[in-house]
Amino acid sequence: MAWVQVRYSQGLTLLFNSDCKVASFCDALRDRCGYTDLSEAIDLLNADGGLAGLGAVAEGEATSRRASELLKGRGVYTLCKLVVAEDGSTEAESLWEEPEPEHPDHEAEDQG
């Protein structure tokens, strides 16, 4: 099995099995990450900021092509939506926010 780690929302991470069809994988991403109402197409950004290519898979191909062909097993990816700009180009907009750093010093002050 090919598992990947997907970062989304405010510092959240989930594991996904990429050994399935692209359409099923994208449905699972939307469902488990809470983006079922999102109208834009989704994709994943790799560590270098490049798109994995899930959104580029043709509709007919999405039911036969496997997500594991596009994703590296044990890879860490960031969920993004694909936004179409006015000029027709597509831009990836991250759906993950880096968590606020914890400040142990402030917690000690609050308790003390």
From TrEMBL:
<feature type="compositionally biased region" description="Acidic residues">
    <location>
        <begin position="90"/>
        <end position="100"/>
    </location>
</feature>
<feature type="region of interest" description="Disordered">
    <location>
        <begin position="90"/>
        <end position="112"/>
    </location>
</feature>
<dbReference type="InterPro" id="IPR039471">
    <property type="entry name" value="CXorf65-like"/>
</dbReference>
<protein>
    <submittedName>
        <fullName>Uncharacterized protein</fullName>
    </submittedName>
</protein>
<dbReference type="Pfam" id="PF15874">
    <property type="entry name" value="Il2rg"/>
</dbReference>
